[in-house]
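Reopening closed ticket. The problem is back. First fold of the pair:
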Amino acid sequence: MERDTRSAVSTGAVSTVKFSEATVGRYLARRLVQIGVRDVFSVPGDFNLALLDHFVAEPEINLIVCCNELNAGHAADGYARARGVGACVVTFTVGGLSVINAIAGAYSENLPVICIAGGPNTNDYGTNRILHHTIGLPDFSQELRCFQTVTCFQAVVNDLDVAHELIDTAISTALRESKPVYISISCNLPSIPHPTFSQDPVPFLLCPKLSNPLDFEAAVEAAAEFLNKAVKPVLVAGPNLRVGKAGDAFVELADSSGYAVAIMPSAKGLVPENHPHFIGTYWGAVSTAFCAEIVESADAYLFAGPIFNDYSSVGYSLLLRREKSIIVQPDRVTIGSGSAYGCVLMKDFLSALSKKLNHDTTAFENYSRIYVPPGNPLKCEPHEPLRVNVLFQHIQKLLSRDTAIIAETGDSWFNCQKLKLPLGCGYEFQMQYGSIGWSVGATLGYAQALPKKRVISCIGDFSFQVTAQDVSTMLWCGQKNIIFLINNGGYTIEVEIHDGPYNVIKNWNYTGFVDAIHNGEGNCFTAKVSCEEELVEAISTATGEKKDCLCFIEVIVHKDDTSKELLEWGSRVAAASSRPPNPQ
C-alpha cells in the first residue's frame, strides 16, 4: 500500500492554544494525528503515565493498552504496514528493552514506527542517583544506547526549550527514511506549559527526494539498452517497492513492457496478482510452479527492490547471474556486473524506463506454454484427519478485497505464499526478521488500522504461545479477525532445519485459553476442528452468524504434515547454516 507521508498544508491561520494546554504532551499527540496515527499502542508505567494522559485527552487518538511491550511494538509494526506509520508508548528501560525486539523487526522491514518512552525526571540527570527500572547504575543512557542500533534517529527530551525541534526532527526522519525512531520524554515534562507550544503545530510538508538528473538519465538509457537487447527479459518485484513507494510505477512498467512479472516472497501483496502477465512467486527451489524456470532461464531480469538474504535465497541457492541483472533499489540502480548510478529514485526510474522499452512478451509466452494448472488436494474421506493443504484450500475461498492475510513465521509462510490474492486483498508477513509470535501483535495493529477489512491470521502453536495474551486486546477493541491456530504440537519450521526435543512444546487447550480471555466480555467464537466437516462448519459460522465476532479456530493436524516447500527450503537453509569454517 502506497501512502503520501506529506501532511496536507493547513488552510487558514494556525490556531492559538490556551497557555495551560501548551504542553509537550499535547504537542506530541497532535503531531501524531497530523501524520495519520489514530491508534497508539501502549503499556503504562510510572515514567509514562503523565504523557499517556495527553494521549487520552486527544480526541483523535485512541489509546490502546496492550498486555506487554513486545506486542505493543508488533502492533505498531502492523499498523504502519496498513497506514504508513505507527506509534507505541512504553516506560523507561524495562519497557524500552522489552519493546526493542519489535522495533528491530520494524527496522529490518523498513517501517516508520515512532517508539516513545517515558524517561527519568529532569532533576535526576547528572546526579549519582539510582532509579528503579534500571540495572542499578546512575547512568541513564542504557536504553538510548540500545535503541541507537535499531532506529534511525534518537531524541532525548529533557529540556522544553528544544523539545519542539527534537520531536519534529524525529518524526520527519522516520517518515523520510521509512525506519523507526526513538523519543524519550522526561516524566515531569508532559504537562508543563511552554511558549513554544502556544500554537497548534503547523502540519508537516516534507521536501520530496529528487533524483540526480544526470545519473537518472544515464541509468534509464543504460537500462533500456540492456533490456532491449535481451530476448526474453522478466521483471521481479521485491519488498523494497514499499520503501520506494513504487508499486504503481512497477505496474506501469509491467504494462508497457509486456514482460513476465514475478514477485519475491516478501513482496507478496505489493503487486496485483491479477496482472495479465503475472507468473507467481520467485523463491528459487521453492517458487510457485514454473516461475523459477522462467526467471532463471531469462537472459535479463530486472529486480525492483530485492532483498537477498539466506532465507529469500533458499540458503544462497538461487540460480541467478549478476551480469544478467538490473538491481533497482529505492535510490540506486546497478546494471549487470558494472555500472551503478546513485541518487536515482526507484519510482521515477521505473516510470521513465516504461517509456523506453520495446514490448516483449516472449518470457510470458514461454510460461504460458509450459504452465500446468495446480491440482486440488486429494478429497478427504468422511471424518478423515484434517490435512494442511485442505485447510488452505478453504482459506483461499475466504479471500476477497475486504480481507487481509497475516502469515506467521513457519509453514504458514509457504502455505500462504500459494494463496491467490484477489485485487485489494492485503497480505503481510515478516520475512527479514522472522520473529516468532509477530503475527499476534501485527494482526491487532493491522486490523485496528483498517477496520473495514477482516484480517485472517495463520499462526502456528509454538509462535502463538510467545505472544498469545493480546488476543485479549483484540477482543477489547471489538475486532472481527479470524485466527487459524494450526496445532501440530511443535515448531515445525525448526524441525525441518534441525530437529531436536526442544522443538516439541507442551500442548495447550487453545480454545479454552481464548474462552478464558474472553470471560464473557466482547464478541468471541471459538472452535476446535480435526476433520474437514468440522472445519467447514466452523468457517460457515465465522462468516455467517458470527461474522461480527473475533473467531478463533484451532486446527489440529499431524505433526509431520508440512508443505513440500518447507521440506525443500529447510534442507537447503540447514545446509547453508552448517557449512564448516573456511580453512585458515
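Second fold of the pair, where the issue appears:
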Amino acid sequence: MRLSLSLFVLLAVGLVAFAEPVPHILHERRSRIPSGWAALRRHERSATLPLRFGLKQSNLDKLDEFLHDIAHPESANYGKHWTAEEVASTFAPARESLDAVRNWLVTSGVPEDRVRTSSSKNWVEVKVSVEEAERLLNTEYHVYGHDSGKQHIGCSSYHLPSDISPHVDIVTPSIHFDTVVGKRDSVHPTRKHGASPNIHHIHASPSKHMATDVSTAASALDICSTEITPACIKALYGINYSPQSPTKNSFGIVEYTPQSYLQADLDLFAKNVSGITALVGKSPNLVSVDGGFAQTEATGFEYNGESSLDLQYAMSIVGVSQAITLYQVGDMIEGASFNNFLDALDGSYCKFEGGDDPFQDVHYPDTILSGYRGGPDCGTAVLSNVISTSYSYNEADLGPDYTARQCAEYAKLGLMGVTVLFSSGDSGVAGRSGFCLTSDGFSLSDGTMFDPAFPSTCPYVTSVGATQIKSGGTVNDSEVACEVTIQSGGGFSNYFATPDYQQGITSGYLKQNKPAGVATSRYNATGTSRGYPDISANGAGYLIVADGQLALVSGTSASAPVVAAMITLINDARITAGKKPVGFINPSLYSSAFASAYNDIVQGSNPGCGTIGFNATTGWDPVTGLGTPNFPKLMDAFMSLP
C-alpha cells in the first residue's frame, strides 16, 4: 500500500513537472511615449521594483442596474440609497482572484514571505528585482525622463498568464506614466498633475472700473451680457428660494492646493458684488485632505481665482444659512489627484479596493521636509449631498483601466446618494491647452481628432457645459453656447459606452447633426458612446474678487458650481418635505418627466481642432447638453418624485 501511494505521488509530481506552461497574453500596451517624455535607458536588472496587482472587483457589470434601481424616477426604489457598508461588500474582489494571483507568484519562484496582500484583500503586492519583474510580466522596464527633469520607471506593454489575466485589473508600475512633472519650489509650487481648473481670466481691475459701478452691481441686470453677478444668475434661471432645512443638508466644493480662497476676497464680494452683507465674515467649513489648507503664502489670480469663483457664487446662491464644505486637497509641495480626494471620501476606495495607482496619484507622507508629514487621508471626510469639481483631465491622458476604476467610484458615490458634478472643459471639442488627438490616441499640439474630457465622459457624473447671453442681450433672452473667451467642452467618449439614460439620444443627434466638413474619423461617430455635457449654465464674464482685485472670468468652472448650488436648494426642499436628497440625477434629467425643465439652447457651437465643432440644436447636444435649468420647473420635477 505504501509503495502504491509513493508511486502515485511520484507520478503526480512528474505530471506537474512536465505540464505545459500557461501561455502569457497581452494585458496592457501603450503605443507611444507621452509628450515630453523620452526613454533614457534600460532599468538596472538588480534594482528592486514594488509590483502591485490590482484585483478585479465583483459586480461592476451590475453598476448600471444598481443605479437604475435607486436613481431612475420610475423605479419603485427611487431614493433608497445604499450605505457605505453595502457598497463595500457588494464590490469586494472574489477570493478566487486573490488566491489565483498569490499562487501564480509563488509557483513562479517568488518566495511566499515576499508576497503580501493588502488589508482589503484587493491588492497583491510583491517586491522583486527588475529581472524578476520582467520575467513575470514578459516585458522590459525602462527609465524615462521628462523635460522637467522628472524620471519614471515603466514599460510599453506587459503580459500575464492567460489564466491570471481575467483576475487582474491593472499592474503598477507599468504603462501608466506619472503625471506629476513639474519641479519643486517651496514658495511657488509648480509640480502639476494632469488635471487643471477650467477657468479663463479675462482681466483684473485694481481700480474697480467695470461696466458698472460696484455699488450697483448687486442689483443691476442691464450689465449681464458683459458682467455676470449672482443677481444675473438668479434672474436667468428663476432662482427664488431660501433654505428651510440647512442643518440637514450639505454642499461640497473641491479645490486642489495651491488654489485657495482669501477671506478678505469673500467679504469684498459680499459687500460689493452680491450685496449679501450677511455673508461678510462667513467662511466655508474646510476639510483638509492630505495636508490641504487655506494657504496664503502664494496669492494672485493664479492661486485665488478658481476658489474665489467657486465659493463666491456658490455661497451667494445657496444663501447665508446653508453651510458649504470646502474639500481642500493636497499640500503645497505634492499637490494631489482626484483619487486622493476619493480616498478621503470613502475608505473602501483606498483600503478595501486599493484604488490608487502610485504612478498617477500622490502618496503621503510627503518625503520633502516642508511637505505634509501625515499619512494619507482615507475615509476621513464626510460625504456631502452635492459635490462640485471644476477641474478635468484629457480622457486620453489616462488609460482606459485607470479611468474605468475611477469612474466606478463615482458610481458608488451615486449609490450612496451623492450628486457629483464636473465642469466639461473650456476648449470645445479640443482637450486642455487646445490639444487634439493623434491617430494613435495621444493628446498633442499637432493632433487633429476631437479630444474628450474626463471625468465628464464618465457616465456616473453630471457634466456641466457653458452658455452666455448674446451680445447686447438681456436675462430675458435665450442664451447661446459659450464661444467668447472659452468654448463649452463637449463631445463623445472614446472609452465609455452610451449609458441607458442616453440611449437613442446621442445616436439621434449624430444622425441629424454631424459637424459640417469634418470627417467622422476625427471623432467617435459610432453613436454608441457616452456624450457630454449633460446640462449647462452661464459661464461667460463672471465678476469676482481675487486677491483684492475685481476680475472678469469665464469657464465651465463658473457654470458647474452654479448648477450644483441649484441642486443643493432642491435637496433642501426635498429634505424639508421629508424626502431624500436627489443623489445621481442623470436618469431623472434625461427622463420624459423632466423634458420641460430646461431652457433649450439652439444656437452656437464648440469649436476646436481646426473645426467649428458640434452645433447646438433642439434637445440634447454635445455643446450645452439638455440646456440650462429652469429652476422652478426643475424644482417641481424633483419634488414630484418620492
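Update: turned out to be a display glitch only; the data is intact. The two ends are 73 Å apart (CA to CA). The CA atoms of residues 208 and 550 lie 6 Å apart. Please close again.
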